[in-house]
Amino acid sequence: LVEMVVALAILGTVAVAFLSGLTTSSKAANIADQQVVADSLLRSEIEYVKARNYTYNATSYPVDPTLSIPTGWTVNSTVSRPPGHATDDGIQNVTVTVNLTGKVMLRKDIYKVAR
């Protein structure tokens, strides 16, 4: 009886460790998937903003209408003047942000120049 209880205790410990490892790997895979989606959305929107015509005194650029945004995700871009530029003299600092249910997943600043 004692040997059986010890064997069950060892088996239970191994099962808990295994299930804990499965849970951790599942969470890691979910985080990796979210990062891939965020990176893809960010890159696509940056390319769309770069391809658009320069708009003087813009406060934002629209989101690419062809971009397939999954449920819960949002993408936006805001425009500000670079440091040392009091007016819109042909250069803008564009910040593209990708959010998942209100949480910022990825943000990148780019410069857009009037050409």
Structural class: alpha+beta
In N-to-C order, the SSE pattern is: HEEE
Instruction: Assign an overall shape.
Output: rod-shaped
- Largest sheet, spatial ordering of strands: 1-2-3
Question: What is the strand content?
Answer: 25-35%
Q: How is this structure best described in words?
A:
Helices cover 43% and strands 25% of the residues. The chain has 115 residues and is α+β, with helices and mostly antiparallel strands. A three-stranded antiparallel β-sheet has the order 1-2-3, with helices on one face. β2 and β3 form a beta hairpin. The model has no long low-confidence stretch (mean pLDDT 95).
How would you describe this structure in keywords?
115 residues, 3-stranded antiparallel sheet, 3 strands, alpha+beta, 1 helix
In short:
This protein is of the alpha+beta class and 115 residues long.
Secondary structure layout:
Blueprint: H1 2-51, E1 73-80, E2 91-100, E3 103-113
Antiparallel strand pairs: 1-2, 2-3
